[in-house]
User: Fold this.
Amino acid sequence: MTEASEIRVRHWLLAAPALSLIGLFLLIPYINIGIMSFRTPSTTAPYGPGYTVANYVHILSDSLYLSLLAETLLFATVTTAVCLLMAFPVAFHLARTTSRWRGLLYAGVLSPLLTGVVIRCFGWIVLLANNGLVNQALGTVGLGPFQLMYNATGVTIALVHVFLPFMILPLMTAIQSIDPHWEEAARTLGASRTRVFQRIMLPLILPGLQSGVILVFVLAASAYVIPMLLGGGRVQTLPTVIFQQLMGGLLWPFGAALALTLSFAVLASIWAFVFLGRKRMRGLA
Amino acid sequence: MSRLSIQALTKCYAGAAAVANIDLDVAEGEFVSLLGPSGCGKTTTLRCVAGLETPTSGKVLFGDRDVTRVPPERRRIGMVFQNYALFPHMTIRENIGFGLEMRGVRGSEANKRISSVLDMVQLTGFEDRWPRQLSGGQQQRVALARALIVEPAVLLLDEPLANLDAKLRDEMRFFIRALQQRIGITTLYVTHDQAESMALSDRIVVMFAGRIHQTGTPQHIYDRPATKQVAKFIGQANLIAGKVVHRCNEVATVDTSVGRLLCATNCAVEPGTPATAMVRPEAMQLVKECSPNAFPGRIMERHFLGNIVDYRVATADGTVLAIQALGSIVHDAGEVVSVQIDPKKAWLLE
Assistant:
């Protein structure tokens, strides 16, 4: 064996544990779902005999499922946008602060991830219910009550809350990699604060922004527990419908087709996003 | 191109003054260095001139224009940073053209000026490279080109050579000086390296703890330092404590622990005041015979450095003096010699 191929083998060996994990628990189940989505339905078994494309035809021809898909992607988009707006100042402050409370702030950012999703949802229910803490507080100044739960507002609030760290952390890392001298150099060369942001900061933050947006978008599009609990059955997204198909209707082939359709739509959205940002990120790799 | 005046400039951080009441005038086309140890306020002063810091009090003027409250982007300055601060997401052409872009200069006019400054810093052909593909010296020259292309009123350099290796530093030193002379731009240069400031500057401003200790030509600062700190910071200095016994015009007689010395002075010291005689290592000669303004000593150490020989000589009272002699080795360790001091080159400090 030559030295180069020996090194290549060693690299593969190092990657083997991760690769086998991905193969075993991601690739094989996905293939399984893929096959399942082409099966025929059955009331007595998970699926019936033979193969069909009827599941996909059903999804793509029924405006109910297409609008559900659109709504799910819209939910994810709004959540991502709100996360981005809220994360930016926090990420900027965390990246640049020299405060001794930095560690504490950091822990604060991660705090949404410290409790389980169900507990967190019940927490939000206590806050957002019609007679919850938020409406009680607003009531004392003569406002409300507002419908903050069992609708898109409540679901979005809870989604933003838990996914905010996934936006803040990559943004923070990107901002940390920006040398303040670059901003100062741009100022001395005649750039106003706004121009510095446009021409120096934003292009350099883009890679971090991209990771944050992708993470939050994917997580929000596939969220199930939060829309379920805070939507209270009145908010439907594709993941909640998939769950109903699988567990309620026992329509495994159709559920599988819905799941793959969602995966594909999310992948396509990410691809479009990356493609659009590609030109602006040249020279940064 | 313009004159630069700093008037009563003070900058405080959390109540402590980083720069305390500084006055400085830089003439049109003059090259002035701010020299001092780290934390002496030299960089803060430069940043106040650039507009990157707002002075607590005092004024900065370019010519007759008061720029104290003018933001950096409207000051017409060129600044070079220690780490070059090239924009990593822009090519060399875009980096250099950034100042033009901000001023709305585009197209063939911009390209012409970019080619011209690239030629000036000898980097023609590097237009489409990325900053990370360039060596430190090349990056530094790009930073210079980027600062100069906008034809600034004042050029500001913050330790621009500190990150380069010694050989490149020497080359860049000559390069910067030649370039500055050619375009005749008013330049303020911050450094902690005394050799650098000496080689480059028309005048040096020596700062300690936020204050200016001395302003003068390199030669003047070397030969006639104003304070002990300046004497020690610039080159090597032997400081010998003593008491003034007599002064006649610009020559003072001082009784020191090593003996009676004649020193040059420019201050009206009264007999009886304690004072310090400063003698540079090369202003002392080792002679065999006792002569005027000389005293005996014993050679403790001898280091041959090629062009010079470094001696450590202990005098009768135990004071150890650093002495440098040109040429080859004449004396050996342990030898008893006479140390002769040129009275014109001994300098009295208060």
